[in-house]
Automatic annotation (TrEMBL), chains A, B:
Pfam families assigned: Ald_Xan_dh_C, MoCoBD_1, MoCoBD_2
Keywords linked to the UniProt accession: Molybdenum, Oxidoreductase
Protein name from the UniProt record: Xanthine dehydrogenase molybdenum-binding subunit XdhA
Span of domain Aldehyde oxidase/xanthine dehydrogenase a/b hammerhead: 16-132
Recorded superkingdom: Bacteria
Gene Ontology terms, MF aspect: xanthine dehydrogenase activity
EC number: 1.17.1.4
PANTHER family: ALDEHYDE OXIDASE 1-RELATED (PTHR11908:SF132), XANTHINE DEHYDROGENASE (PTHR11908)
NCBIfam families to which the protein is assigned, alphabetical: PRK09970.1, XdhA_XDHase
Classification via Gene3D superfamilies: Aldehyde oxidase/xanthine dehydrogenase, a/b hammerhead, Aldehyde oxidase/xanthine dehydrogenase, molybdopterin binding domain
Organism: Blautia ammoniilytica
Length: 761, 761
């Protein structure tokens, strides 16, 4: 069953529109909440007048920052820690009078319907005291008065660094030292389903139904934000229309919970608009990198130095973990005796940076892989050749976090496959000496990526199975289907280990923290690895219990009993159907006991997935246009659980990566920090017309750590396209772009500066 | 915690209207189904024309008996049996062209809304061939042509008998032989919430949300009725507005499931009207009894003989189990060396008899306890004295079903309490020689009642618990809250065994067969006994796991660890809070594993609860009116789990029992079998104005078999009032009524026959 391209278990329901998302489950007579957002970028509320809004017919309740309890809470979807030092920063409250970014949450309206709620918002009057707005991290870290958060006078949320070997000496010893700076933009996840939840009370407890990747964490954070015992909160997660990390944050669920309490437990819905999803949820951090490398005569890296400045925006959210993930990546995969890195995470008055597919690596990898090309160019070496020379073959492990290791390592095979696809050798030569406005080039990049978060943080997953009367099996996991196909591969895993048909595994897609085994959720490409481990063990346990019960029904059996496709086999011969056995265990008058199994498993392992991207582009320099002619991602993600789903995962990630490289950026007004293009019309994502065939290649290494030989695949596909395209543009034009996306404006300005096209007008 | 009158865990939500019942959970855009019922009492459909109805705008689908698959299925809420001989009778299909009672289900309409569905029903045209209607069992068992069901040519669904000792000889040896016949009426449960369900499809499976006492059984029967694997069905049970056994049958859920399949999986709601609930669901069987007893010179029973004829109505449903339960009761509790009984269950053309609170015993007990008075009168002995002389003291067990035994027996204490309350001695004398039209009397009755169904059928229950991060506990059971307070007492049990506060037990009230531990449901007064056993064991298991984990956190602890009110105690001293422990088990980086426990427990035990009722009445013979002045039930139900809830349970049962004695009966047209009073206006239930203070008395014996010393209490309260009132009327007037209810018409006719009041006009 593992390795087969079975259709998704939810395919039919999702294609026919029958699958139920949060909005499909909303109760009749549900009240509607809307949030009043600040219209300044930095400052404080001097006065707020809600009287006119409250007088509006149909308005049920208005709460302002003055009405909410003070329980500062953290929002990131991380496992909690019992050690204070490892806990996330708690720097926000349900509502605030201290405005830290344009759009900050000041008040909320609860009304009988959406129109009334919207009208009420327009009747609220607020007076502000304004402070200067700072949207650039390197400026913000010089400090501001007042600071963005009182606890961090210099606006620096966190700083960390490390040094392996002696980088300064390495630089001195180097034949060539190359330095360059890179910057990545603020972008947004743009999941199809905007953030939405509804909440009500039930027997003195709060129930929140939410489109989230992390129901068990939402439960905990609501408890923290409201200052109530966590067990008083129940979170339900239906199907969700994408998250990409934005729903790995606890966003408006705590406010939604508070609002239902404020109206005596009546159901209240809180659904964001697309504009709010852009501005008031999370973004991918913009990070600035200053990199340096020293190489020896042979082109070996002998010293590397990274200084990174991450723009956190107004609140801590996932905070320093993002830039820190890049610092770790900086020391992996390429062999280099002397490596140094430091990173700053800096509060500014911008929308809040959080988790987004690949968690800091798209930024760091853009910088690193652009830089690898720039270093190769500086020493006149083929960029692929330069990388191969410096890449570690086979096993390696992180210098500090030992479990983070390449237990299997298919990067060289990946590079071979990618280079062949793009005709690297031929095209690097063919495109060497072009003239004219339209030029072509090939570029590439590579990456390695952790599977889950151990040992940086906790990894734990739960699974429960029960045997139905017909011999089919119910499967519950705390891990979440977020569109990636998790339900399907978990079902495949159960079928594989139980030797059953897939159609006899019935997975419960909805998580309900009251009854669902604990799992931290969908992030860090962890689920098929961590939860997969729990599913496998749970299936093994269920099988053991089934065979033990079979023994009681077959007291004279002397041979080995096995479970195979709905039958108990004794020495390979069918002796009892699983349905018969199940009926006995349910209904036997002598010995009935329904067979269930449950596992809660801490997973103390990790493994590095790897892969690369190759792109061929055509650059129309006069138009400032990059057309991607061919593109491939080649992944070593261990054994593929479902090749079809794996390809779709890669294609989706490549599309995202291309948008990151070419067009996506959330623009902010310099003076107010107000987002300028927070709509899907103005924010430019890839469309089908921008997208060539997306080729997904795989090198299947059977990973010894993966429960079914598998490694991370959820996030990595988004990593390589942006630097591969940038490097292809470099190859085509000789111009090294150090900032993505490669928009027409940025391209034209650079080509003009390089004298490749004339300055017009 | 056990024995405390804590408020119901669902009290607040139910009082404020927030508790969600099936109708509150119905999805938007749900289609509405209505059933087309036969308008003859016996016959077959010659032709059916749905064309006009189908042409109506808004009609989505019409199915008739010709469109449904043929999978005859059983409907009673019994555990399934792997032995064919023990399986329930499968004598019905989803729809039928062979009409067996007035109202039988011929077709169903699915429409966009209720009005359209109702209009469509009126456009369906049916032609019938009619057969003679038979509503009396002793006539029906003579046979009919054609028989009601082809498989039972003589219309006898089942017959059973037994004889202990030699009854004929006993009768010969007796000083006095008394014979009498009794008859009980057809009545209806009249639960507040009519039967309702809605169904939809999800990933190729069928989901049915239903107001049922037995979700896991509904799942199975839908599978049987549709001929699909049982694992393809998911049943969800929200709060339900009463059932009293009527929702211990699988009624329209299979048809509802079929209808959603017929419309491609769209959600379809099927809600019965009150009239349909009266006619098309289930009723309490009318049973006719011929009894005889021989007593010796001292007033000891030396022979007893029962012949019972149960009117099953048109379909088997719970069938012979009802009358058989009375046959068993006939040989229990009263000592008698020679006992014989036989019972017939007979198909007729009446609404279907099924389970109703106390499952055959209100009928048998009415006959038996009226008879005990009649025998006492025959030998001129005080009825209470006569009973005491013949009752078994202390332990006794059933002659055939050994586990059915009085492991504790408080009947004598109950009688003492009841007699004192009603002032038996004084009033039996005081009312001995009355004259005039208005007379008073005191009467009593007693009973014993099994707890659960073992060893007649399977008893199995499941429970699962998980420890929350705040040290509170989630509790899931497959047993069902149906208004009786089950959720509250299960929570108390968990709190008791875990030594926790009740507020820290969070019970999941909704059952969902996909995730809820298996349990057969709410019936037979089984849950606090059978499920209670599973809850207790599950709590013990959870406690063991908590203490084992505590050991890992307290490696230096040498003393005994205990769990007490949120703390781990070592030798009685607090050493760790349960919250700290819980946080560690969730989040420890060294050893995290969320603590859960699950039990699926077969319970091979039973125990007899007992009790009595005493009533004082005033009979206005001219008006044909019985006024109950004082009434008490005294129960030995073992240790009371929650005295307040127990009292409420008793009061509700007493009200039902009074209605059974005085006013309730479903009247049928002799010629067509058409119910004549199938509305709450015409069918006379007790109201507050008819009801005196209802006194609930208890004798708390600590039963050795009950998990917390408890025995049956759910059903028994409904048993004693009817015969106690009838016996009080006998005491007041000297007239022995042998048929309930004691309606004005029946009273006046009897008093006229007895010459107590004049025949007018």
């Amino acid at each position: 069953m593992i390795g087969k391209s079975v259709p998704r278990v939810d395919a039919y329901d999702k294609v026919t529109g029958r699958a139920r998302f949060t909005d499909d489950m909303i109760l009749n007579h549900c009240l509607v909440a809307k949030v009043y957002h600040a219209t300044i970028g930095n400052g404080r509320v001097i006065s707020i007048d809600t009287s006119e809004a409250e007088a509006l017919d149909g308005v049920v309740k208005i709460v302002t920052f003055k009405d909410v309890p003070t329980h500062p809470y953290p929002t990131p979807g991380h496992p909690w820690s019992v050690e204070t030092a490892h806990q996330d920063v708690s720097d926000r409250n349900l509502l605030t009078g201290r405005i830290r970014y344009y759009g900050d949450d000041i008040a909320a309206v609860v009304a009988e319907d959406e129109v009334t709620a919207s009208r009420a918002l327009r009747l609220i009057k607020v007076e502000y005291e304004e402070y200067p707005v700072q949207i650039h991290p390197r400026e913000s870290m010089k400090g501001s008065n007042p600071p963005i958060h009182q606890e961090k006078k210099d606006n620096i949320l966190a700083h960390s660094d490390y040094e392996i070997g002696d980088v300064d000496q390495g630089m001195k010893d180097a034949a060539v030292v190359v330095k360059a700076s890179y910057k990545t933009p603020i972008i947004q996840h743009c999941h199809i389903e905007n953030n939405i939840s509804y909440a009500y009370m039930e027997n003195g407890r709060i129930v929140v139904v939410s489109s989230t990747q992390i129901p068990h964490i939402v439960r905990r954070v609501i408890g923290q934000a409201l200052g109530i015992p966590w067990g008083k909160v129940r979170v339900i997660k239906p199907y969700i229309g994408g998250g990409f990390g934005n729903k790995q944050d606890v966003l408006y669920e705590p406010l939604n919970a508070f609002l239902t309490m404020a109206v005596g437990g009546r159901a209240v819905k809180l659904e964001l608009t697309r504009e709010e999803t852009f501005v008031n949820t999370r973004t991918r951090h913009s990070i600035e990198y200053d990199l340096a490398a020293g190489v020896d005569e042979d082109g070996h890296l002998i010293a590397k130095d990274m200084h990174a400045y991450s723009n956190q925006g107004a609140y801590a959210s996932h905070g320093h973990a993002i830039v820190a993930n890049g610092l770790t990546a900086w020391r992996l995969q390429y062999g280099c005796p002397n490596v140094r890195a430091e990173g700053y995470t800096i509060y500014t008055n911008t929308p809040v940076g959080g988790a987004m597919r690949a968690y800091g690596i798209p930024q760091a990898n853009f910088a690193m892989e652009c830089f690898m090309d720039d270093v190769a160019y500086a020493i006149h070496m083929d960029p692929l050749e330069f990388r191969k020379k410096n890449l570690i073959k086979g096993f390696y492990q992180d210098a500090y976090l030992k479990p983070i290791a390449a237990h299997s390592n298919g990067i060289f095979e990946c590079l071979k496959k990618g280079a062949e696809f793009i005709h690297w050798e031929e095209k690097r030569k063919e495109y060497a000496n072009q003239t004219g406005n339209i030029r072509r080039g090939v570029g590439m990049s590579l990456f390695s990526y952790k599977t889950g978060v151990w040992p940086i943080s906790l990894e734990i997953a739960g699974a429960r199975m029960s045997l139905n009367q017909d011999g089919s099996v119910q499967l519950q996991v705390g891990a979440t289907e977020i569109g990636q196909g998790a339900d399907t591969v978990f079902s495949q895993m159960a079928a594989e280990t139980l030797h059953m048909e897939l159609e006899n595994i019935h997975i419960t897609s909805v998580q309900d923290t009251d009854v669902t085994p604990f799992d931290t959720g969908a992030y860090a490409s962890r689920q098929s690895f961590v939860t997969g481990t729990a599913v496998k063990e749970c299936a093994q346990l269920l099988k053991e219990k089934i065979l033990a019960y079979a023994k009681t029904l077959l007291p004279e059996a002397v041979g080995t009993l096995e479970l195979d496709h709905g039958y108990i086999l004794e020495n390979g011969e069918k002796v009892l159907s699983l349905e018969q056995l199940a009926l006995e265990c349910y209904y036997s008058l002598t010995n009935s006991s329904v067979i269930t199994a449950e596992v809660s498993r801490q997973v103390k392992k990790n493994t590095l997935a790897t892969g690369c991207g190759f792109a061929e582009v055509e650059v129309d320099m006069a138009l400032g246009k990059v057309k991607v002619l061919n593109i491939i991602n080649v992944h070593d993600s261990g054994k593929l659980l479902n090749p079809q789903l794996a390809s779709m995962q890669v294609q989706g990630g490549m599309s995202m990566g291309m948008g990151y490289g070419l067009s996506e950026q959330l623009l902010l007004d310099e003076k107010t920090g107000r987002p300028l293009n927070a709509t899907l019309l103005d924010y430019k994502m890839m469309t089908m017309m921008d997208t060539p065939d997306l080729t997904a290649g795989f090198v299947e290494m059977d990973d010894p750590e993966g429960p079914y030989g598998n490694k991370a695949l959820g996030e990595p596909p988004a990593i390589p396209p942006a630097p591969a395209i940038r490097n292809a543009v470099l190859h085509a034009t000789g111009v090294a772009f150090n900032e993505n996306p490669l928009t027409p404006q940025r391209l034209i300005e650079a080509f003009q500066r390089a004298g490749l096209i004339p300055v017009v007008g």
